[in-house]
Every structure is written in structure tokens, then in C-alpha cells.
Amino acid sequence: MYLQNLRLYNFRNYEERFFTFSPTLNCIVGKNGSGKTNLLDAVYFLALSKSSIQTQDSLSIRFEEDFSSLEGAFSNQNIIGIHLLRNGKKTVTSNHKVYEKLSDHIGKYPVVLLAPNDTDYIRDGAETRRKLFDGILSQVDPEYLQTYLKYNKTLDQRNSLLKQFAEQNYVDKDLLSIYTESLLVLGKAIFEKRKSFIESFSPLFKDQYVHLSEGREQVEIQYSSDLWEENFEEQFQKNLNRDLSAQRTTMGVHKDDFLFLMDGVLVKKFGSQGQRKSFVMAIKLAQFQCLELEKETKPILLLDDIFDKLDDRRILRLIEMMNSGAFGQIFLTDARPERTAELLSHTEVNLISL
């Protein structure tokens, strides 16, 4: 499955533009600021109904315009449309029929993005790594996504109660217990899904790292969670006074982390720049494999500005994979057309100049 064409209205720096794509490699070239990354983000938006760059949908609307729309035709004869309004309203359609729930769209058009800021997954805190793996799991498993959304809604409700009780100096334990019990059940389901996922994902990741680094280090992704403790639920219930003091839920899967280890120590503390790049690149290539296995189709692969961010060895590894047919449809950006022509001289390319 691949994206055949895409029409943009008032999306980021595009007033109106129509693009047609190759089912294999599409290389987007142009000067910095011409809209290369924005075009990749439009493909990502179409697949996942959200931007890879902006946290608010309205920020994807062209400056001083009231709306934005994207419409893309896929090879499975589905036409996906996304309409954004400045007031925050978003509509996603499949063959001109509105999805009842946006979450129903996630995973239907699997996509993997390799971006210049991917090493943030190593540098940043636990929330960034949770978002990474929650994003992968949400594409792989629709049931996980529904559970995750319910958990976050229940967490918000429980936190609102805790804040209200702290302000009023009064606690309705019966009311709070309703949200507590629901949170424990949903959290347990998320924990089991994450645990199972990392068990199956880790071998794919380790294999990719060996190919990228020639196996010089032992790497591991370790899942850290309060729920590994056998008496977690008992501890959670005893934690009420702490929660009231903090006015938020201080234990649970929303505090989980995924530890990135190399030879038994944190990559964040001891990994070189090259080792960090190989680590996150191996995660993204393993994500591609995982989605391909689960969805029985090759995900769309988005490669943003990788020639500037990767060294020659890693670039050659990616090009070897492209030429071997390991990937399906690829979108690649580069600000230097002459470099693209040289590196991809033996690869069939659909060149898009901006």
C-alpha cells in the first residue's frame, strides 16, 4: 500500500499544491525553508491524523488563514481527507465518510519517521520515551490505543478530584475509589501490553543495531514500571495522602520509563554521538519491521534530512536497504540536490523539487 497523490490547501507554508508520488523512492529537494519537512509532515498527518511537529492542530494552518485541508489517495482506493479549522475543530474522513472516532484511523496507514531530533528520545525524560513506544503500540494494536485513551481520561478525572479535595480540605473516599479502581484495571492492561511488546520488539531492535554498528556493543531496552512490584495495588492505595499533597496521581503506568542501555549503562550518560544515532536509528528500523509483521504491509518511511545527520556508514546501510527492497514507499528530503544525485545514482528516484 502506498500514497499515490496528495492535495494541500493552506497547510503550513503551502497555499495550494498537488503532488503525485512513486510507490518506491520519492526525494524532495529544495532550499531550507522551501517546505520539505512540511511535505513530510503532511504525509505523516494524513496517516496518523496529527502532526509530527506541532502539538496543536491549529499551528498547521497557514498563517492568517481560517482553515487547512489535506486529501490523499492511497493505492487501496481509499481517499483520506483531513480538514482543520482555526477554532480547533478537526474532521477526518475515509472516502468522504467521517470517522466516528479519530482513533479508528490510527494504524490503517502505518508510517515510520526518522527525523534529525530523534536523539531527543535519549536526552529527554521518560515522557518522551513513553510517547515513542505508545505511538508504535497504538499503530500496532487498536485495543491498546483504546485502553490508553481511557486510562488518560480516568487519570485526568482522578487528578481533578485530588485537586478539588486538597482545596476543600475534604475527601470523599467512596467517590475517589471509583476512579482508583478503574485506573488500576486499565493500568494493569497497559502494563501487560507494554511488557509483552518490549519482549517481542527487543530482538528486532538488537538485530538492527548489530547491522548498524557491526556488533561492537551490547544494547538493551529495559521497561521500568511501578507495576513490576508484586504489592503495587496495595502501595497505590496507601499512597493517598501523598497524592492529596501533590494534587495528582503519583504512581502508575503514566510514570513508566524505557531505559536505553549499552553494555549495561545508560546511553544517555555514556554513549557517544555515533552510538546514540545508531541506537535510535535501530529503534526506528525495528519499528518498521514490527509494523510490517503486524500489518502485513510495508509502512510508509519518512526520512527527514538524514544525509546531514548521519555519517557515511549509516547512510550507506540505509541505501543498501533501499536497493534491496527492504522498504516500500519512501519519502526523503535533502537540501543539496547534487548530493542526492550522487548518493542515489543507482536507485530509481521520483524527484520533487520545491
TrEMBL record:
Under HAMAP family, the record lists: RecF
Q: One short Pfam family name for this protein?
A: SMC_N
Cellular component per GO, a single term: cytoplasm
- Name a single GO biological process: double-strand break repair
Q: Which residues form the RecF/RecN/SMC N-terminal domain?
A: 2-337
Which NCBIfam families does this chain map to?
A: recf
Q: What is this protein identified as?
A: DNA replication and repair protein RecF
What InterPro entries does the record tag this protein with? DNA-binding_RecF (IPR001238), DNA-binding_RecF_CS (IPR018078), P-loop_NTPase (IPR027417), RecF/RecN/SMC_N (IPR003395), RecF_2 (IPR042174)
Report the protein's function: The RecF protein is involved in DNA metabolism; it is required for DNA replication and normal SOS inducibility. RecF binds preferentially to single-stranded, linear DNA. It also seems to bind ATP.
Per the record, the similarity remark reads: Belongs to the RecF family.
Instruction: Specify whether ATP-binding is a keyword of the entry.
Output: yes
GO molecular function annotation = ATP binding; single-stranded DNA binding
- Any idea which positions bind ATP? G30, K31, N32, G33, S34, G35, K36, T37
Cell location: Cytoplasm
